[in-house]
Amino acid sequence: MARAVLTDIEGTTTSVRFVYDVLFPYARRELPDFLRRHSAHPEVAEQIATISDDVGTTLDLEETIAVLEQWMAEDRKATPLKTLQGLVWEQGYRDGALKGHVYPDAVAGLRRWHAERHDLYIYSSGSVQAQQLLFGYSEAGDLTPLFKGYFDTRVGHKREESAYHAILEQIGRSGGEVLFLSDIVEELDAAAAAGLATAWLVREGEGPVGARHPVHTSFETIQP
């Protein structure tokens, strides 16, 4: 029996359409003016400097915005982009322009597992801040009390086995004590290579016959 559950967000707890049709367009629309208004804020300035380091040359603000717009178009999983998107989304959630989507079966499953004393964690390409906002301002209310911790790309990329070893070390669990949920088979492969149990969420259609990970269409059938 798994003592902890580590879950992805996009396509697992939350509709991909919410991410691509609501969150990403909001960030693309609001990010340029947000940076112009808040470029001197220490957290924003730190990310701007990191972007210059990443591209290997010193960028001015408008050049930085152009790089971020290109990264957003490419859906790049760059930590400074995800951090800045999180800051923009925070503004939207606090203003009431955004409400986090979480599937009803995911809400019920997370509450059930929390009541059964399973430790719950999130691991997503989106920043920890973005994760906390989505669940904190969800359509089902504030779900953040259910979670013991959050992980993003700072721990490693989700298709790399080493990221899951790092998470296990941080939460003090062995792989066999943790169940990882995702809709991406390559992420599940990496988690399984690190010794985690896995569950493949297939929200639409059916998983392939003979899939190497247990296939579920909702949280209702998952028993950690």
What does this structure look like?
It is built from 8 helices and 6 strands; from the N terminus they run βαααααβαβαβαββ. With 224 residues, the chain is of the alpha/beta class. The chain has 2 domains: 4-15 and 99-221, Rossmann fold (3-Layer(aba) Sandwich), CATH 3.40.50; 18-95, Transcription Termination Factor Rho, Rna-binding Domain, Chain A, Domain 1, CATH 1.10.720. It has a 6-stranded parallel beta sheet, sandwiched between helices. Helix 6 (128-136) links the parallel strand 2 (119-123) and strand 3. Helix 1 (16-38) packs antiparallel against helix 3, helix 4 runs parallel beside helix 6 and helix 7 (161-171) crosses helix 8 (185-193). The longest helix has 23 residues, at 16-38. It starts with a strand and ends in an 8-residue tail after the last strand. The model has no long low-confidence stretch (mean pLDDT 94).
Write the topology of this structure.
Layout: E1 4-7, H1 16-38, H2 42-55, H3 61-74, H4 79-95, H5 104-115, E2 119-123, H6 128-136, E3 149-151, H7 161-171, E4 178-182, H8 185-193, E5 197-201, E6 215-216
Parallel strand pairs: 1-2, 1-4, 2-3, 4-5, 5-6
Helix pairs in contact: 1-3, 1-4, 2-4, 4-6, 7-8
What distinguishing features does this structure have?
single chain; 2 domains; Rossmann fold; 6 strands; 224 residues; Transcription Termination Factor Rho, Rna-binding Domain, Chain A, Domain 1; alpha/beta; six-stranded parallel sheet
